[in-house]
Design brief:
alpha/beta; 10 helices; TIM Barrel; eleven-stranded mixed beta sheet; two-stranded antiparallel ribbon
């Protein structure tokens, strides 16, 4: 008789720890204030909480009675800006301290286009369970989930610190620390709050959730409302190569991932983004480009392959490909009728680019206080 083999649980199979403590005012919808018996109009309370640029003495502009009720019944603290690091390209990395002393990072990226906008890259967890080989955050392991209040509070703290005061000029990308679909309930509740018409009213067309390929989460998010746009970090074109870079592929391989995307019913003008980090000598050959185009299949019609040159960091032994290799990879994909963009990584000089967030920074900074 053979021996039964016991497999250790994979980190993403276990729920991440949650923060204990009182509910945050930033994680509340109007109906929650009503249910708790808050004095005054619940929609007014909610709306004023969602306008951080109008806060007075660090608090929403509300009557004394309402302020006292909020302080007595809920956690009213915004995440604290502990450090600011300014990049030469105009982006700013914020290190934010949470109420229990844990720290996360968010990146504020203004874009001077026809209608100036700000893209805010936000975190969903403290650390990350996914262990992607090229990502600095993965070296932390998973510490805990962020609550919906901490996610929304992160956004409000960044807007209070750096603007803008026009919510229609904000684009949110869940591409910071953590795997958003490993914290799906809290991430989706935060999206409900950020999308609410009485709050920031950020359209779901301007909210993107990026996943490493957590298939059960993709399948659940597909049926949630409001539903953000989806980006999938692919990064390799064979199961062997992808499993080496991204352990999640050992559970849900390329074929299973593609099946989940095929089942994602697309809305009007909605498109998927397939993110592909180019790593020198690992996934950047012409054969990789051809396999990528083949895997895309019908997704080549209007959906975006977003190429990202590896952003190097201390914990990674990998290197970014040179310009000629990147250009050749792009040209081959375009020849195979893929819609391709190359991401201009912001904040590389302050370790604020994709894959570099790890609670410590280099470069020019305004140090408020260390975490």
């Amino acid at each position: 008789m053979g021996h039964m083999v016991e497999f250790a649980p994979r980190p993403w199979d276990r729920p991440a720890p949650e923060r204990a403590g009182r509910l945050s005012i930033y994680g509340m919808l109007p109906e929650d204030f009503t249910a708790m018996g808050a004095p005054g109009r619940a929609e007014h309370i909610f709306a004023m909480i969602q306008r951080p640029w109008e806060y007075r003495d660090g608090f929403p502009r509300l009557s004394r009675e309402i302020r006292e009720w909020l302080v007595a019944n809920l956690d009213t603290a915004l995440p604290e800006v502990a450090e600011r690091h300014a990049s030469e390209d105009g982006s700013t990395k914020l290190m934010l301290r949470l109420g229990d002393g844990e720290c996360i990072e968010a990146v504020h990226m203004p874009r001077e286009v026809r209608n100036p906008r700000v893209t805010l890259c936000v975190s969903s967890q403290v650390g990350c369970a996914m262990g992607c080989a090229f990502c600095a955050t993965g070296t932390l392991g998973i510490r805990r989930n962020l609550s919906a209040g901490e996610i929304v509070g992160q956004v409000l703290a960044a807007l209070r610190e750096l603007g803008p005061e026009r919510p229609h000029a904000i684009t949110l990308v869940f591409m910071g620390m953590g795997e958003p679909l490993h914290n799906l309930e809290q991430v989706h509740r935060a999206i409900q709050i950020l999308n609410h018409t009485r709050g920031l009213n950020i359209s779901t067309r301007r909210i993107t959730v990026s996943t490493s390929g957590l298939v059960p989460g993709i399948e659940r998010l597909a049926h949630m409302e409001p539903r953000p746009w989806l980006a999938v970090s692919l990064n390799a074109t064979t199961d062997e190569a992808r499993s080496a870079l991204m352990p999640v592929n050992r559970a849900w391989g390329l074929a299973r991932l593609r099946e989940a995307l095929d089942a994602w019913s697309l809305g009007d003008r909605e498109r998927l983004t397939i993110e592909y980090v180019l790593v020198a000598g690992q996934n950047d050959t012409m054969e990789d480009a051809e396999r990528l185009a083949e895997w895309m299949g019908e997704l080549r019609r209007g959906h975006n392959v977003n190429l990202i040159r590896l952003n190097e960091h201390e914990a990674a032994s990998f290197r970014e490909p040179d310009e000629a290799q990147v250009n050749a990879f792009v040209a081959r994909l375009k020849a195979l009728n893929c819609f391709v963009t190359v991401r201009k990584s912001r904040g590389r000089d302050i370790q604020g680019a994709c894959g570099q967030l790890v609670k410590k920074s280099k470069g020019p900074s305004k140090r408020i206080e260390n975490c």
